[in-house]
Design goal:
By secondary structure, the chain is of the alpha/beta class. The chain contains 14 helices and twelve strands. Helices cover about 40% and strands about 20% of the residues. The longest helix has 19 residues. It binds 1,4-dihydronicotinamide adenine dinucleotide, 2-OXO-4-methylpentanoic acid (COI) and magnesium ion. The site of magnesium ion has 2 residues, from helix 10.
Length: about 375
């Protein structure tokens, strides 16, 4: 029996809906294994601005610092996206949280699930067997550099800066991950144009000597954007800076079949944070169409981080079961879609009672009454 404190930041848009499913799954895990997960929710993003004027209230940051792990839904709201003059924005809360917690590495696994190959717009023979890991630098680069306007407001700038230590600390994690996988690391950069990219290349090339078992190659990001969907099986570990990793990983979600399937772990100095790679998908808010699996798989990564491997494996098994049985939201199952809640219930029920496997769409409320 373990007792863990998990700070939950549901956020905005579909964030609360998908987070609720992941919390339910963690409750099912706790029930099944006799653990205690203390899961309290805190404000971050547009909801926090509305309530306090601050996208990352002190109470939220303090709770994250005091937690064993953090689970995040997503933040962002069209009222800020469509107002270029807004002084306070939901995204500032997320960026400040990442920086304050020292979460310098965002790890985004991309898998082509064989049962979903038919849902991908990409050709089966190109994507089958894809299993890659993106290491995206998360607290530096252009998202964090000085930004602003010139005095007349007619020009704007966003500075991109990287230091050697910032590159080294994430590169070590990526090299170690590659060493334990298929021993290949691809640095994605724009070293033909950007000085920051030339520093990345220099540092990674030097570090490669420490990891002789890992084959390193280098790709310009424009080429990588093409290669990642043309022949994704060539990749094992991709290491890249903040903005390139943000873009390449959303693109890579097409391989899995939906942005709603890709989880992530953000790790760094102490407490780690787990979140789907997607945003707050405001068009879907309250409609029950958001896929909760990315957040549920983020919860599985959270369990692995807490060294609860059997628990995480059971969550993955339950997700596989949902995939195999077509218990999927409408972007993956347009003819007989399940709601966000039903997908979450199915997975939680399977974890709580996987010996019975009695679940069906109609008995779910009865079956789950014991665990939710
Ligand atoms: N980590 C975070 O909290 C992030 C927040 N954002 C914010 O989210 C808001 C919306 O941004 P968008 O560019 O529209 O990106 P988004 O990721 O919210 O949605 C893009 C598209 O992906 C699909 N999608 C996303 N999540 C899905 C899910 N769970 N199930 C099924 N389909 C899903 C939908 O087709 C959607 O139109 C903005 O305010 C943005 O700043 C964007 C990315 C990350
Ligand atoms: C909303 C941004 C701050 C970041 C983003 O798109 C992401 O982390 O995937
Ligand atoms: Mg993104």
């Amino acid at each position: 029996m373990v007792s863990k404190k998990i700070a939950v930041l549901p956020g905005d848009g579909i964030g609360p809906e998908v987070c609720r499913q992941a919390v339910k799954v963690l409750e099912a895990v706790a029930g099944r294994f006799g653990h205690r997960f203390d899961m309290q929710s805190y404000l971050m993003g547009a909801c926090a601005i509305d309530a306090t004027g601050n996208p990352l209230p002190d109470e939220t940051l303090d709770a994250c610092r005091a937690a064993d792990a953090v689970l995040l839904g997503a933040i962002g709201d069209p009222k800020y996206d469509h107002d270029p003059t807004a002084k306070v924005r939901p995204e500032q809360g997320l960026l400040r949280l990442r920086k304050s917690l020292g979460l310098f590495a965002n790890i985004r696994p991309v898998t082509a699930y064989s049962v979903l190959l038919e849902h991908s717009p990409l050709k089966r023979e190109r994507i089958e067997g894809t299993d890659l890991l993106i290491f995206r630098e998360l607290t530096g680069g252009i998202y964090f550099g000085d930004k602003g306007r010139t005095a007349d407001g007619e020009a704007a700038y966003d500075h991109c800066t990287y230091s050697r230590p910032e590159i080294e600390r994430i590169a070590h994690l990526a090299f170690r991950a590659a060493a334990g996988r298929r021993q290949k690391l691809t640095l994605v950069d724009k070293a033909n144009v950007l000085e920051t990219s030339r520093l990345w290349r220099e540092v990674v090339r030097e570090m490669a000597a420490e990891y002789p078992e890992v084959a390193v190659d280098y790709l310009f990001v424009d080429n990588a954007a093409m290669q990642v969907i043309l022949s994704p099986t060539q990749f094992d570990v991709i290491l890249t800076e903040n903005m390139f990793g943000d873009i390449i990983s959303d693109e890579a979600s097409v391989i899995a079949g939906s942005l709603g399937l890709l989880p992530s772990a953000s790790v760094g100095e102490r407490v780690a944070l787990f979140e789907p790679i997607h945003g707050s998908y405001p068009q879907a808010k309250g409609k029950g169409i958001a896929n909760p699996i990315a957040t549920i798989l983020s919860a599985a990564m959270l369990l692995e981080h807490l060294e609860l491997d059997a628990e995480a494996a059971l969550v993955r098994e339950a997700v596989d079961e949902a995939l195999h049985n077509g218990v999927l939201t409408k972007e993956l199952n347009p003819t007989a879609p399940y709601t966000t809640e039903e997908v979450g219930n199915y997975i939680a029920f399977w974890i709580a009672d996987s010996n019975e496997k009695q679940w069906n769409k109609n008995n779910v409320e009865i079956g789950l009454s014991t665990i939710i």
